[in-house]
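Batch job 17 of 40 flagged for manual review because the log was empty.
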Amino acid sequence: MNRLWTAPFQPITFNPALGDLSKLIAPPYDVIDDKMAKSLLERHPFNAVRLIVPKPLAQQLKDPYQTASRLWAQWIKEEILIPWDKECIFIYSQRFPWRGREREQRALLCPVPLMESDDGPIRPHEQTVQSAIDDRLALLKATWAEHSQIYALIEGDERWACFLRATSTAPPSLQAQDETCLHCAWVVDDPSFIQEVSDYLSDKWLIIADGHHRYRTAVTFARSLPSSASHTDPARYIGAIIADGRTDTTVIPTHRILRFQRAELKDRFLAQIRRRFFTQNVCDPITDETIDGLLSGDQRSSFLFTSCGETCLVTVTGLESAVNQALSSVADAFKKVPTAVLHLGLLPVTLSSLGIKQEEVSIAYTHSVQEALAHSADAGSVAILVPPLKAEEVMAIARQGLVLPPKTTYFFPKTPSGFVMRSLKPI
């Protein structure tokens, strides 16, 4: 059945008697570092971080996956986790401060079928790493549990917007606040409404925005099911938060920090950048708004290079000849992606022309302009501030069956683990 559909499912949530759900949810496993893992463990004895076992926590446990499996079963038995009596889907909302105002993004939280082929109605936009799939697959095999949803984009319309307004005045059924966002969900259990949504999805396609490894893990897991398993078997679909990529999605850029082994190499690099490309000095204070103003518009191959308090706007006009040659074998769509131009053209061309070896420079990443600027104060460092890629552009590239370079997109805010969960087998 190579089309999209949805159906009501049995949610599993934390027992409301435990108190504020905000203390029980956790970020996605792959953004949790040592400090955050420690904080989540201390926040509440039943925090979801114990179920998703991110790497910092897994390293502390003898058998992390079986530990998570025992906890999942124990928490259900002890009614720490409550399987709902009724099946439903949810309307989901994220409310968060954005550029001095509050922003709300609405989406549908519902199951969608897993697809074997990446050229079907569910398409990736990023490459995956096998080690991450192996990690999540071991957890899924041990627990048969889904602790969060993938985040997917749809090309919505007014009818889609009407679906999301269906519960606009009712109080939310679930609510939790994390460091950046208020997450709310409203139950929808009307069979006719759910069927109407399913019919609407039948000729649509989705782009995976966040959760590529979890999706690929779920597909791999489903292959192990017996052939007699129905297409509606809970393990043959995956929970998804589906948002309109044009109106209800925020993408923030991932800035680069180059660290040269010697300050002299950095100086030569910047001098070569000024010789080879069109550059303009920037005197204004660097903020998110500054970046939007300087790097927006039709000319997308522009970047802000800053080092030791000095900033210049670097533009690859018409794609400079050596960069153009470096990108000659790249799909045309990638030539409009700033990070592709940067990593496949500008950086290798410039570094190789100076004889700077790969081991003489490293790259770090941050979503924070202030963090990038702080690192750029180091004598051997350069911060490269990049423009965000629009969600519509991500969808256009994925529609062509292409996947973007690593660290190209960062969808914000992140959807939490432990907010709405699901078992892949009867409880």
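Reviewer: the log was empty due to a logging misconfiguration, but the result itself is present. The longest helix spans residues 338-353. Unflagging and moving on to job 18.
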